[in-house]
Protein backbone atom coordinates (compact mmCIF):
# COMPACT_ATOMS: atom_id res chain seq x y z
CA UNK A 1 0.00 0.00 0.00
CA UNK A 2 2.84 2.34 0.81
CA UNK A 3 4.47 1.77 -2.56
CA UNK A 4 1.13 2.27 -4.34
CA UNK A 5 0.62 5.54 -2.47
CA UNK A 6 4.12 6.72 -3.36
CA UNK A 7 3.48 5.71 -6.97
CA UNK A 8 0.21 7.70 -6.98
CA UNK A 9 1.98 10.74 -5.51
CA UNK A 10 4.68 10.36 -8.17
CA UNK A 11 2.05 10.23 -10.94
CA UNK A 12 0.24 13.27 -9.51
CA UNK A 13 3.50 15.20 -9.16
CA UNK A 14 4.58 14.26 -12.68
CA UNK A 15 1.21 15.34 -14.03
CA UNK A 16 1.50 18.72 -12.33
CA UNK A 17 5.02 19.20 -13.73
CA UNK A 18 3.87 18.19 -17.22
CA UNK A 19 0.90 20.52 -16.98
CA UNK A 20 3.11 23.41 -15.82
CA UNK A 21 5.60 22.74 -18.62
CA UNK A 22 2.77 22.66 -21.17
CA UNK A 23 1.43 25.99 -19.88
CA UNK A 24 4.92 27.53 -19.99
CA UNK A 25 5.50 26.30 -23.56
CA UNK A 26 2.09 27.66 -24.58
CA UNK A 27 2.78 31.05 -23.02
CA UNK A 28 6.26 31.22 -24.51
CA UNK A 29 4.98 30.28 -27.95
CA UNK A 30 2.24 32.92 -27.67
CA UNK A 31 4.83 35.46 -26.56
CA UNK A 32 7.17 34.55 -29.45
CA UNK A 33 4.33 34.72 -31.95
CA UNK A 34 3.36 38.13 -30.56
CA UNK A 35 6.94 39.40 -30.83
CA UNK A 36 7.30 38.02 -34.37
CA UNK A 37 3.97 39.56 -35.32
CA UNK A 38 4.89 42.94 -33.83
CA UNK A 39 8.37 42.97 -35.39
CA UNK A 40 7.01 41.73 -38.74
CA UNK A 41 10.31 40.01 -39.45
CA UNK A 42 12.49 43.02 -38.56
CA UNK A 43 15.83 42.15 -36.98
CA UNK A 44 17.57 45.43 -36.19
CA UNK A 45 16.38 47.62 -33.33
CA UNK A 46 15.64 50.59 -35.59
CA UNK A 47 13.52 48.51 -37.99
CA UNK A 48 11.71 46.77 -35.14
CA UNK A 49 10.70 50.19 -33.85
CA UNK A 50 9.59 51.29 -37.32
CA UNK A 51 7.67 48.09 -38.07
CA UNK A 52 5.86 48.23 -34.73
CA UNK A 53 4.89 51.89 -35.25
CA UNK A 54 3.71 51.80 -38.89
CA UNK A 55 0.55 49.67 -39.22
CA UNK A 56 0.70 49.50 -43.02
CA UNK A 57 4.13 47.85 -43.03
CA UNK A 58 3.13 44.21 -43.43
CA UNK A 59 6.55 42.55 -43.35
CA UNK A 60 10.28 43.19 -43.48
CA UNK A 61 11.90 41.07 -46.18
CA UNK A 62 15.60 41.90 -45.75
CA UNK A 63 17.96 44.13 -43.80
CA UNK A 64 21.63 44.88 -44.37
CA UNK A 65 23.63 46.90 -41.84
CA UNK A 66 27.15 48.18 -42.48
CA UNK A 67 29.40 51.12 -41.54
CA UNK A 68 30.58 53.84 -43.90
CA UNK A 69 33.11 54.96 -41.31
CA UNK A 70 33.27 55.22 -37.52
CA UNK A 71 30.17 57.29 -36.77
CA UNK A 72 28.06 56.46 -39.86
CA UNK A 73 25.99 53.29 -40.03
CA UNK A 74 23.76 52.35 -42.95
CA UNK A 75 20.61 50.24 -42.68
CA UNK A 76 19.47 49.06 -46.12
CA UNK A 77 16.00 47.52 -45.85
CA UNK A 78 13.34 46.04 -48.12
CA UNK A 79 9.81 45.77 -46.75
CA UNK A 80 6.20 45.42 -47.83
CA UNK A 81 4.10 48.54 -47.33
CA UNK A 82 0.40 48.62 -48.29
CA UNK A 83 1.04 45.30 -50.10
CA UNK A 84 3.75 46.98 -52.25
CA UNK A 85 7.53 46.43 -52.29
CA UNK A 86 9.49 49.28 -50.72
CA UNK A 87 13.19 49.98 -50.26
CA UNK A 88 14.73 52.45 -47.82
CA UNK A 89 18.20 53.54 -46.76
CA UNK A 90 18.80 54.92 -43.26
CA UNK A 91 22.06 56.63 -42.35
CA UNK A 92 22.55 56.90 -38.59
CA UNK A 93 25.06 59.64 -37.78
CA UNK A 94 26.74 59.68 -34.35
CA UNK A 95 27.86 63.26 -33.71
CA UNK A 96 29.98 62.16 -30.73
CA UNK A 97 32.34 60.56 -33.27
CA UNK A 98 34.63 62.33 -35.75
CA UNK A 99 31.82 63.26 -38.16
CA UNK A 100 29.55 66.26 -38.63
CA UNK A 101 27.09 67.65 -41.19
CA UNK A 102 27.51 70.55 -43.59
CA UNK A 103 25.37 72.01 -46.37
CA UNK A 104 26.41 71.81 -50.02
CA UNK A 105 25.83 73.84 -53.18
CA UNK A 106 26.69 73.69 -56.88
CA UNK A 107 30.46 74.07 -57.34
CA UNK A 108 30.84 74.45 -53.55
CA UNK A 109 30.05 78.16 -53.77
CA UNK A 110 28.89 80.22 -50.79
CA UNK A 111 25.87 81.17 -52.87
CA UNK A 112 22.92 79.63 -54.69
CA UNK A 113 21.66 80.28 -58.19
CA UNK A 114 22.60 77.01 -59.90
CA UNK A 115 21.74 73.32 -59.62
CA UNK A 116 24.02 70.29 -59.64
CA UNK A 117 23.70 66.56 -58.79
CA UNK A 118 24.61 65.63 -55.22
CA UNK A 119 27.43 63.29 -56.23
CA UNK A 120 29.07 66.23 -58.02
CA UNK A 121 28.34 68.63 -55.14
CA UNK A 122 30.04 66.12 -52.83
CA UNK A 123 33.10 65.95 -55.10
CA UNK A 124 33.29 69.75 -55.30
CA UNK A 125 33.21 69.94 -51.48
CA UNK A 126 35.93 67.26 -51.35
CA UNK A 127 38.07 69.27 -53.74
CA UNK A 128 37.44 72.30 -51.55
CA UNK A 129 39.16 70.64 -48.60
CA UNK A 130 36.47 68.57 -46.86
CA UNK A 131 36.61 64.79 -46.44
CA UNK A 132 33.10 63.79 -47.47
CA UNK A 133 31.66 60.44 -46.45
CA UNK A 134 27.99 60.66 -47.39
CA UNK A 135 25.48 62.98 -49.04
CA UNK A 136 21.75 63.40 -49.59
CA UNK A 137 19.62 65.94 -51.47
CA UNK A 138 18.37 68.89 -49.45
CA UNK A 139 15.58 71.46 -49.58
CA UNK A 140 13.06 72.08 -52.36
CA UNK A 141 14.50 74.29 -55.09
CA UNK A 142 12.82 76.82 -57.35
CA UNK A 143 12.50 80.48 -58.25
CA UNK A 144 11.70 81.63 -54.72
CA UNK A 145 13.74 84.83 -54.64
CA UNK A 146 14.01 85.98 -58.23
CA UNK A 147 12.54 84.74 -61.51
CA UNK A 148 15.03 82.58 -63.35
CA UNK A 149 17.41 82.30 -60.38
CA UNK A 150 17.47 79.03 -58.44
CA UNK A 151 17.23 79.13 -54.65
CA UNK A 152 16.00 76.96 -51.82
CA UNK A 153 12.49 77.31 -50.44
CA UNK A 154 13.69 77.52 -46.84
CA UNK A 155 16.58 79.24 -45.11
CA UNK A 156 20.11 78.28 -46.07
CA UNK A 157 23.41 78.90 -44.28
CA UNK A 158 26.85 77.73 -45.40
CA UNK A 159 30.19 78.28 -43.68
CA UNK A 160 28.53 80.68 -41.24
CA UNK A 161 27.07 82.81 -44.00
CA UNK A 162 23.32 83.45 -44.31
CA UNK A 163 22.80 82.79 -48.01
CA UNK A 164 19.01 82.81 -47.66
CA UNK A 165 17.53 84.09 -44.41
CA UNK A 166 13.82 83.94 -45.26
CA UNK A 167 11.52 80.96 -45.71
CA UNK A 168 8.82 80.64 -48.33
CA UNK A 169 5.29 79.97 -47.06
CA UNK A 170 5.02 76.48 -45.64
CA UNK A 171 8.78 75.87 -45.46
CA UNK A 172 9.06 77.03 -41.87
CA UNK A 173 11.33 74.33 -40.42
CA UNK A 174 15.11 74.43 -40.11
CA UNK A 175 17.85 71.88 -39.51
CA UNK A 176 21.08 73.51 -38.39
CA UNK A 177 24.56 72.78 -37.10
CA UNK A 178 25.69 75.33 -34.54
CA UNK A 179 29.20 76.70 -34.07
CA UNK A 180 29.73 74.40 -31.08
CA UNK A 181 29.11 71.34 -33.30
CA UNK A 182 25.67 70.50 -31.94
CA UNK A 183 22.61 69.84 -34.12
CA UNK A 184 19.14 71.37 -33.90
CA UNK A 185 15.88 70.85 -35.75
CA UNK A 186 13.41 73.61 -34.98
CA UNK A 187 10.79 75.95 -36.36
CA UNK A 188 11.71 79.06 -38.33
CA UNK A 189 10.59 81.16 -35.34
CA UNK A 190 12.82 79.21 -32.94
CA UNK A 191 15.69 79.49 -35.41
CA UNK A 192 15.62 83.29 -35.09
CA UNK A 193 16.85 82.91 -31.51
CA UNK A 194 19.90 80.78 -32.40
CA UNK A 195 20.74 81.83 -35.97
CA UNK A 196 23.66 84.01 -34.84
CA UNK A 197 25.34 80.74 -33.76
CA UNK A 198 24.40 78.77 -36.88
CA UNK A 199 27.25 77.59 -39.10
CA UNK A 200 25.11 75.52 -41.46
CA UNK A 201 21.34 75.58 -41.90
CA UNK A 202 18.90 73.89 -44.27
CA UNK A 203 15.19 74.56 -44.59
CA UNK A 204 12.58 71.82 -44.53
CA UNK A 205 8.97 71.37 -45.58
CA UNK A 206 6.44 69.48 -43.43
CA UNK A 207 7.32 68.90 -39.78
CA UNK A 208 6.90 65.17 -39.23
CA UNK A 209 7.77 64.85 -35.53
CA UNK A 210 7.99 67.59 -32.92
CA UNK A 211 9.16 66.82 -29.38
CA UNK A 212 8.49 63.13 -29.92
CA UNK A 213 4.92 63.58 -31.19
CA UNK A 214 3.77 63.29 -34.80
CA UNK A 215 2.44 66.43 -36.47
CA UNK A 216 -0.56 67.08 -38.70
CA UNK A 217 -0.11 68.79 -42.07
CA UNK A 218 -2.06 69.67 -45.20
CA UNK A 219 -3.61 66.84 -47.17
CA UNK A 220 -2.44 67.14 -50.77
CA UNK A 221 -0.83 65.13 -53.56
CA UNK A 222 2.62 65.57 -52.05
CA UNK A 223 1.60 64.23 -48.64
CA UNK A 224 -0.99 61.57 -49.48
CA UNK A 225 0.28 59.87 -52.65
CA UNK A 226 3.05 57.26 -52.87
CA UNK A 227 6.31 59.10 -53.65
CA UNK A 228 10.06 58.67 -53.24
CA UNK A 229 11.04 60.52 -50.07
CA UNK A 230 14.04 62.16 -48.44
CA UNK A 231 13.58 63.15 -44.79
CA UNK A 232 15.62 63.49 -41.64
CA UNK A 233 15.39 63.51 -37.87
CA UNK A 234 17.44 63.93 -34.73
CA UNK A 235 17.43 62.25 -31.33
CA UNK A 236 16.20 63.87 -28.13
CA UNK A 237 19.76 64.59 -26.95
CA UNK A 238 20.68 66.13 -30.38
CA UNK A 239 23.64 63.74 -30.66
CA UNK A 240 22.26 61.44 -33.37
CA UNK A 241 21.06 62.49 -36.82
CA UNK A 242 19.00 60.14 -39.01
CA UNK A 243 18.98 60.57 -42.80
CA UNK A 244 16.35 58.62 -44.74
CA UNK A 245 16.05 58.02 -48.49
CA UNK A 246 13.09 55.97 -49.66
CA UNK A 247 12.81 54.90 -53.31
CA UNK A 248 9.54 55.03 -55.24
CA UNK A 249 7.69 55.20 -58.57
CA UNK A 250 9.18 51.85 -59.59
CA UNK A 251 6.34 49.32 -59.07
CA UNK A 252 8.31 46.08 -59.24
CA UNK A 253 11.08 47.43 -57.00
CA UNK A 254 9.88 50.23 -54.70
CA UNK A 255 6.72 52.32 -54.68
CA UNK A 256 7.41 54.98 -52.07
CA UNK A 257 5.25 55.95 -49.09
CA UNK A 258 2.56 58.37 -47.99
CA UNK A 259 3.82 61.13 -45.72
CA UNK A 260 1.19 60.22 -43.12
CA UNK A 261 3.07 56.96 -42.56
CA UNK A 262 6.52 58.51 -42.94
CA UNK A 263 5.93 60.52 -39.78
CA UNK A 264 5.10 57.29 -37.91
CA UNK A 265 8.24 55.76 -39.39
CA UNK A 266 10.36 58.60 -38.01
CA UNK A 267 8.79 58.30 -34.59
CA UNK A 268 9.37 54.54 -34.56
CA UNK A 269 13.01 55.03 -35.59
CA UNK A 270 13.62 57.17 -32.50
CA UNK A 271 13.44 60.66 -33.99
CA UNK A 272 12.48 63.28 -31.40
CA UNK A 273 12.31 65.89 -34.17
CA UNK A 274 11.86 65.11 -37.89
CA UNK A 275 11.22 67.04 -41.10
CA UNK A 276 10.45 66.27 -44.74
CA UNK A 277 12.95 67.37 -47.39
CA UNK A 278 12.69 67.41 -51.18
CA UNK A 279 11.62 64.08 -52.64
CA UNK A 280 10.45 62.53 -55.90
CA UNK A 281 13.18 62.33 -58.53
CA UNK A 282 15.48 64.39 -56.29
CA UNK A 283 15.71 61.67 -53.59
CA UNK A 284 19.26 60.35 -53.51
CA UNK A 285 21.99 59.09 -51.19
CA UNK A 286 25.64 58.87 -52.23
CA UNK A 287 28.71 57.62 -50.41
CA UNK A 288 32.47 57.78 -50.67
CA UNK A 289 34.18 54.88 -52.48
CA UNK A 290 37.96 54.52 -52.63
CA UNK A 291 39.27 51.87 -55.01
CA UNK A 292 42.55 51.33 -56.88
CA UNK A 293 43.86 54.72 -55.85
CA UNK A 294 40.81 56.63 -57.04
CA UNK A 295 37.88 58.14 -55.15
CA UNK A 296 34.31 58.61 -56.31
CA UNK A 297 30.84 59.18 -54.90
CA UNK A 298 28.56 56.29 -55.78
CA UNK A 299 24.77 56.39 -55.76
CA UNK A 300 23.38 54.00 -53.14
CA UNK A 301 19.67 54.02 -54.03
CA UNK A 302 17.80 53.93 -57.36
CA UNK A 303 16.51 57.43 -58.16
CA UNK A 304 13.16 57.40 -59.96
CA UNK A 305 14.61 59.54 -62.77
CA UNK A 306 17.09 56.75 -63.49
CA UNK A 307 20.03 59.03 -62.69
CA UNK A 308 21.16 61.72 -60.25
CA UNK A 309 19.01 64.85 -60.62
CA UNK A 310 20.55 68.31 -60.42
CA UNK A 311 19.36 69.97 -57.19
CA UNK A 312 19.85 73.34 -55.52
CA UNK A 313 21.53 72.10 -52.31
CA UNK A 314 22.27 69.10 -50.14
CA UNK A 315 23.49 67.77 -46.82
CA UNK A 316 26.91 66.15 -46.55
CA UNK A 317 28.38 64.11 -43.72
CA UNK A 318 32.06 65.03 -43.43
CA UNK A 319 35.04 64.41 -41.21
CA UNK A 320 35.44 66.92 -38.41
CA UNK A 321 38.37 69.27 -38.61
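^ C-alpha coordinates above, recovered residues below v
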Amino acid sequence: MKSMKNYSNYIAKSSRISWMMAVMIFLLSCSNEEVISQNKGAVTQIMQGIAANVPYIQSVESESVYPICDGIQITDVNFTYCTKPTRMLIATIDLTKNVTLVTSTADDRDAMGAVQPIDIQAMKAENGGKKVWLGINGDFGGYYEQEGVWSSAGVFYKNGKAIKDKAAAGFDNVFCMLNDGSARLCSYTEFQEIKSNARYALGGYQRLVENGETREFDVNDISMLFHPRTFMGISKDNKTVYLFVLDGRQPAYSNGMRLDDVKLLCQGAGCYQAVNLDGGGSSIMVHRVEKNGTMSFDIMNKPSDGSSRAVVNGLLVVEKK
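Residues 2-39 form the longest helix (38 residues).
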